[in-house]
Each structure stands twice: as structure tokens, then as C-alpha cells.
Amino acid sequence: MNDQELIQGCLHKNLTAQRELYDRYSPKMLAVCHRYAINREDAEDMLQEGFVKIFLQIGSYEGRGSFEGWIRRIIVHTCINHLKKNKKFQENIELIHAQGMTTRSEAIPSIIQAKQITECVRLLPVGYRTVLNLFAIEGYSHREIGAILNIEESTSRSQYTRAKNLLETLLIQRNILPPHKQKTEWLVATR
């Protein structure tokens, strides 16, 4: 079935269509959930909660943009709501702004596997990890992140800067990123 057939089937509560939609998109969306979750169980909970929302809201998909992108937005918002609901995000947000902080950036060799970086990202405090994911991976602006997380735009910038610094430190400690190179960009530049 193509996406339109899946959507129609899901609108009619067809279990075969729902299963196929889940099977088609859940592996990618589980990877999204892993970027926000502390552990596999949390990621799976986020995924399940997200797919419940997808099936309930599938009638709101208007065909503009990619269907996968629409699914991803629901999953990302579900992850954030899950963190907020469980107070894991709020406990880890620091409201001290990162004015005057220096960022040392280095080129990540292309041979580094995404799994190693993902493991290091998972070690970041929840607030840092959430802002890093929303900004560098999902492409939200700091203003949008502030609105989504109910924080100031400057707090989003601060969290992103701190996340980059801590991630860089973790990558160096694990010998994934060589410590001897000078400043070059290896992660999305602060907007």
C-alpha cells in the first residue's frame, strides 16, 4: 500500500493498514524517540504514545508536505510532552545563560559511526539533549524551541551552547573526536 492507501485505511480503522503504517514508520520514529529518551523503555513509551496520537489525528493530515514529516512532528512533540509530563526536562534545565562562553568546535571525521555519537548525545542532561535535538537535528529555531519548551529564547541558546560543549568533551574523552585540531565547525552553527 502507498501512503494514501494507508491513510484511507487508518481513517476507516482498518487494522491491517494501521499495522502496516506502524511497521513502515516505527523504526525511524523509534530512532527519533531514542534521541530524547533516557533509556529504551522511555523511547518505546514515547513511540507508542506517539502512534496513538497519529492514529487519532490522521484525519488532520492535509497532504501538504511529506507524510513522514507529519508523523515526525507528532513524535517529536510527543517526546517533549513526555519529558515535561514526567518532569525530567524541567529538572535538568539550567536558567543561567551562557554569555561569554567559548565554544571549541572541531571537524568530526566522516568515519565516525552515528551510533557512537548517539550514545554520547544520550549521556547529555535531558534539557541539553532536548534543545540539541530540536535545534541541530529537527531544525527548529531557538525562538520556536523556546515556545515549545516554555523557556526563553536565550535559555534555548544557552542550553544548545552547553550541550555542544559537553558533547564535544564526551566525544574527546571517548576518542571519537581528536582533541588536537583547531576551531572548525562539526555541528550546526549557532543561529
The count of DSSP E runs of length 2 or more, i.e. the number of strands, is: 0
Indicate the CATH architecture of the largest domain: Orthogonal Bundle
Rg calculated over all Cα atoms = 18 Å
**Overall CATH class of the largest domain:** Mainly Alpha
Overall geometry comes to elongated
Poorly predicted regions are: 90-112, 182-186
- What do we call the CATH homologous superfamily of the largest domain? Winged helix-like DNA-binding domain superfamily/Winged helix DNA-binding domain
Overall structural domain count = 2
Largest sheet: none
Succession of helices and strands: HHHHHHHH
Number of helices: 8
* Helix share bin: 55-70%
In short:
The chain is an all-alpha fold.
Q: What does this protein structure show overall?
A:
By secondary structure, this protein is mostly helical. The protein has 2 domains: 3-85, RNA polymerase sigma factor, region 2, helix turn helix motif (Rna Polymerase Sigma Factor, Chain: A); 95-191, Orthogonal Bundle (Arc Repressor Mutant, subunit A). Helices cover 62% and strands 0% of the residues. It contains 8 helices and no strands. It has helices spanning 3-11, 15-36, 40-57, 67-85, 114-123, 126-137, 142-149, 153-173. Helix 2 crosses helix 4 (67-85) and helix 3 crosses helix 4. The chain starts with a helix and ends in an 18-residue tail after the last helix. 30% of the residues are buried.
Fold topology:
Elements: H1 3-11, H2 15-36, H3 40-57, H4 67-85, H5 114-123, H6 126-137, H7 142-149, H8 153-173
Helix pairs in contact: 1-2, 2-3, 2-4, 3-4, 6-8, 7-8
